[in-house]
Write a structure and sequence with these properties.
The chain is of the alpha/beta class. It folds into two domains: about 50 residues, no CATH class; about 120 residues, Rossmann fold, CATH 3.40.50. The protein has five helices and eight strands. The strands form two sheets. A five-stranded parallel beta sheet has the order 5-4-6-7-8, sandwiched between helices. Helix 1 links the parallel strand 4 and strand 5. Helix 2 runs parallel beside helix 3. The radius of gyration is 20 Å and the shape is globular.
Length: about 180
C-alpha cells in the first residue's frame, strides 16, 4: 500500500483463507476527500475470487496569496500533514487555476495588490462558478462583522480567517 500519491488503492481478496488485514493510520483530520469501494469478481483458472478494492483520493488544496513566505509555510505544513497542495502568488493565475481545475479547498488572501481576492470572488460569481467552490478567505485586514457576514452569505465562501493564521484553525475549516 502506498498513500503518498493523490490516489491510492488497497486490494483485499475475500474468501481465500487469508486473514491478513491492513490498517491505515489517520492522524488529525481526514486527508481523504473520497473513499469508495469497488467490488469485482475475478476468475483465475477455474476459481472465482471476490475482490474488494478501496480507493482513496487525497484532498487537493489551492493556496492563493501574494506573500511567498505565507504560501511556503502553509504549503510545507499541509504537505507534512499529507495534503496535496498547489501554490500561486499571482492572483490572476489563481483565478485561472480555479476555473480550470478542481480543488477541494481554496485558501484565498483577500487583500492583494492590483487584483484582489475580492476580484477573484466577483469573477467567480459573474461566471456562476463561485457556488461550486469551497473557499476559505484570510487577510491581515480587520474585517467588520457586517463585511464577514456578507462574504459568508455567498455560496462557496466557507470561512474567514484572520492573519496570522492559527494552523489548527486551518485544518479545522478544511474538513468542515
Amino acid at each position: 500500500m502506498d498513500f503518498r500519491g493523490p490516489r491510492s488503492t488497497v486490494v483485499s481478496i475475500e474468501d481465500c483463507g487469508s486473514s491478513d488485514r491492513s490498517s491505515i493510520p489517520l492522524e488529525g483530520p481526514p486527508k481523504f476527500k473520497n473513499f469508495f469501494i469497488q467490488k469485482k469478481n475475478v476468475q483465475n483458472e477455474q476459481t472465482f475470487y471476490y475482490i474488494r478494492i478501496l480507493v482513496f483520493e487525497i484532498m487537493k488544496v489551492l493556496l492563493v496569496d501574494d506573500n511567498p513566505d505565507i504560501t511556503d509555510l502553509l504549503s510545507k505544513f499541509l504537505k507534512a500533514k499529507g495534503y496535496d497542495n498547489v501554490v500561486t502568488n499571482d492572483p490572476r493565475d489563481g483565478l485561472n487555476r480555479i476555473k480550470n481545475e478542481k480543488y477541494d479547498v481554496i485558501f484565498l488572501d483577500i487583500h492583494m495588490p492590483e487584483f484582489s481576492g475580492l476580484d477573484i470572488i466577483q469573477s467567480l460569481e459573474t461566471e456562476k462558478i463561485l457556488k461550486d467552490q469551497k473557499i476559505v478567505i484570510f487577510s491581515a485586514h480587520n474585517f467588520t462583522s457586517s463585511e464577514i457576514k456578507e462574504l459568508l452569505m455567498k455560496d462557496g465562501i466557507e470561512a474567514c480567517l484572520k492573519k496570522p493564521i492559527q494552523l489548527n484553525e486551518l485544518l479545522t475549516v478544511m474538513v468542515k
